[in-house]
Structures are given as structure tokens and as C-alpha cells.
Amino acid sequence: MADIFAWLLSFFLLIGLLGILLYQLMCLADLEFDYINPYDSASRINKVVIPEFVTQGSLCFLHLITGHWIMFLFCLPYLYYNFRLYSEKRHLVDVTEIFNQLAREKKHRIYKLVYLVVLLGFSIFWMIWSIVEESEH
Question: Structure pTM?
Fold first, then answer.
């Protein structure tokens, strides 16, 4: 039963991460179509970058302590990428360079989004697998 709760928590953490990334993509799209100024867009995106990193770290730690080794290994590249961005101080969007970096920032977030959708699919699969396995015992 604890395994099912761990998968549910993993599912909700992934949904939260997807929401954060979609919010960042919407801010970048609003900036691209000139609905918002660069300062507001950068400040909105920068407010959710650290919560995104913390949520991803929590998800990775959850898989580690629950013994879901395959999912932990799937989460590691994304965690490493976030750690590398943070350590190189490239995790925040620069207000003065946001128009020059717009295509690159959108592309990075779309890659993250696709990666998280794949992780969500794996998480749903393993959650259903755990429910079926639990009902057989």
C-alpha cells in the first residue's frame, strides 16, 4: 500500500513540474507575441525556477528512498542538468538578454516538458502495475 502512495506522490510531483514548465512556456510565448514586457516575463519565470529545481530534487529523492531504482535513474539526467544550470549560474533568465535567448529558452523548456511527459507515462505505468500487483495478493 505504501508503494501505491509513493507512486501517487510521484504522479502529483510530476504534474506540478509540468504545470511549472507550462507556466514558463506561457510567459515566454506572451513575451514573443508582445503581450508582456521583458521585465515582467523574466521576473515571473525566475520566481518559479527554484521551486522547479526543488520539486525535481524531491521527486528524485522520493524514488531513491522508496527503492524505485529505474525511475531514480530516469530522473538523474534532468536533476544533473538542473544542478549544472544552477552551479554555472545560468538558471535565471536575464531581462536584458531575454529576446536574444527566447528561442533557446523555449527549446530547453520544451525538451524538459517532453522528458517529464515520458516520466509521467512511466510513473502511471508503474502505479498501475503496483495496484494490480497489490490486488493479486
Answer: 0.94
